[in-house]
Amino acid sequence: MRVGDCDIAETFAEAFKMWGARVVITADSPKWALAAARSMTGFATSIIGCKCEAGIEADIPPGETPDGRPGIAVLLFAMDAPGVAKRLIERIGQCVMTCPTTSCFNGLTADKRVSVGGKLRYFGDGYQISKRLDGRHYWRIPVMDGEFLVEDRFGVQPGVGGGNLLILGRDRSAALAAAEAATEAMGQVPGVILPFPDGVVRSGSKIGSRYKALIASTNDAYCPSLRGFSPDSALPDEVGAVVEIVIDGLSLEAVEAAMGAGLQAAAGAGALQISAGNYGGKLGQFHIKLHDLLA
Amino acid sequence: MEAETLSPDRLEGLSAKAAAKLSVQYGNASAPLGDFFEVAETAHDEMRLSGDLSRVKLVGAGMSRGRIQIEGDIGQHLGATMTGGEIMVEGNAGDWVGPEMRGGRIEIRGDAGHAVGSAYRGSRVGMAGGEIMVHGRAGNEVGNSLRNGLIAIGGDCGDFAGVNLLAGTIIVLGALGIRAGAGMKRGTIVAMGPTEILPTFTYACRYRPDFLRLYLMRLRALGLTIDDAQIAGAYNRWSGDSVELNRGEILVYDGAA
Q1: Are A217 and A166 in contact (CB under 8 A)?
Q2: Cβ separation B169–A131 shorter than 8 A
Q3: pLDDT category, B42, cuts 50, 70, 90?
């Protein structure tokens, strides 16, 4: 199947069940809300090495945030609800509470909720103040610029991690240009994040390694410099570089919508071929067929 | 007249005829509700009362759900100990609005008397949940021994607001009377107007309490007049009362930040 001059491989992305949370960070200015969000989502590219995957979902205008200040929505994913709770406590505690002028709110209505502010409050050393308003529970933690306001509990819900697109280009510049067009389009889809740097990852991985200590290693089938070594090379002759976009979302529908938008954008921006990573369908609970995204 | 029967909990499922036979206390005698009210069919869980009710006490006392709409003034002990539901009063309310209430919401479009959301005499804990909103003024002892919840007064209030406050929040958009927060342990009293602070309170700082934005935005959404400067403005924080636990606070609006 083709979209314009771009070949769409007949394959599927293999995605996994994860648990996700939405964190709304507000601050006196967009600059400081972004500073906190960037810090919180730093070193959160892959569950394998970072214990969670996180990214910025969207800017929120002042009129739509809980406290009327500029805000940013962050999504964070881990393999289970307790894992999400641990990471939220770590990252909100270290990256949001520390950031000047910020407050932090739950942004997800979910049946299951985990304690976050209820744990961070102990930083207040007994001077913290509990407030309940309109069915929600907050903690005021005294800090040196005033108070850090954080919601007691955050909703968590099942999500989908590991949706992906492999973008094959004539060279590195072409592949990256197509990927940038894709991330731009995917950034408009609510309920998803692209956890890698500006949404793009070049070091795609396969399961296992010749070294026993490693559970994953470089995806040699898509490394152009290994054409001569790898009998399994998946690269057409004209392909000189590949980049990947990984998508995590609060629902399968959101991940599919983002993949579809990204696929169309990349195809229209010079990609030679678009493929997807999978493990033969044996590991992931979700198989997202690229051709179905074009239906 | 004491008419705690005027509650959605008590009237649910009753026909107008059966409701009219319910007893109210009139002076020192019981009397049928129908002797004083024309009872019509009501919507499920919703009551509408009209007429001069300024001497009718205990309306909505103990209610747990539903809604009471009162078109006119209402007497004392409105919504006493209620745990849920909503009471809306278009006129003024007497003393003891929502004493020792545990949940739900009361809104008074006019003024309220003394002891809004307070503890009864001899009780250690007053209101412990829910919201009371008075668009006009209120009398003395607003939130006496308040344990949890929100009380908002649109105008001025009398003396001893938040006396013996345990926790919770009192917001007065006008001026506080004297001795606000006397004996408070924890909790928050917010005043937009000039305030005389007791000498047992200690000045802390002038700052922007971010949590207050949530409260003021909610009150504005509910119809109280609050401007942007108050939402984003600076407040002087006083800690007290040092004769007690000293963990309470009085926040006094001090203009734009």
Answers
A1: no
A2: yes
A3: low
Complex-level ipTM: 0.94
Residues 6+ apart with CB under 8 A from B155: B111, B134, B135, B136, B137, B138, B173, B174
- Whole-angstrom distance, CA of residue B35 vs CA of residue B56: 14
Phi-psi domain of B71 (left: phi exceeds 0; alpha: psi -120 through 50; beta: other): beta
pLDDT digits (tens, 9 = 90+) for A44-60: 999 989 999 999 999 99
Name the pLDDT band for A169 (thresholds 50, 70, 90). very high
B217 CB neighbours in chain A (<8 A) are: 67-68
B60: left (phi over 0), alpha (psi -120 to 50) or beta: left
Helices A252-267, A172-186: axis angle to 10 degrees equals: 140
- CB–CB of B108/B93 below 8 Å? yes
DSSP β-ladder status, B169-172 and B86-89 = unpaired
pLDDT per residue over A149-168, tens digit each? 999 999 999 999 999 999 99
* B210, B231, B247 ranked by CB distance to A147: nearest: B210
The answer for A 258-287 residues in CB contact with B (under 8 A) is none
Looking at the DSSP assignment, which residues form a beta bridge with residue A130? A139
Mean pLDDT of B39-51: 85
